[in-house]
Amino acid sequence: MTFFVLHASLKHCGPFSCTNQRLASGVPRQNLVPNIPEKPLDMSEPAWIHLAFDPQCHFCWAKGVRVVEWRFRVRICGKCNKIHMTTSKPPAKDSTESLIHDMVPQRSSKKGNSTYLIRDYQAVAAKYSAITSPEDSKTFVAERKELIKHIYTHAEQCEVCAVQSF
Length: 166
Fold this sequence. Notes:
With about 170 residues, the protein is mainly α. The chain is about 50% helix and about 10% strand. It has seven helices and five strands.
């Protein structure tokens, strides 16, 4: 089955009534879209269903946003893209900016630049700057880099699923 079938089912019963293992009709969710990846470990199921099947911008709630930015775990319209995302050249190696840059989900764009959500960069920068001990800093960096690997792996699975479903 396709994303369309599950989306139609979710439109019928609503995403929050479908958060258990079976839809209201008694059909297991995985039977509707068998190749859909499990929800990410760091997302709630309602948030995951909203991301995967509700075509609304996550910032302004504009309808009809069909493209999911799986690496950023958002749907974002063109207007909000200009406000909430930025594209820049990677910072100089061995700088704090470079370290933070590597701990934020991003995608490659033109001319070797990277695109990322501004809020993600700001949140990681704030957490990193609040760390006082070198040991805590190393732990934070290692945990963030592991999370980024998980996000990228999951995003790739979602992209494959989306291509196969349409």
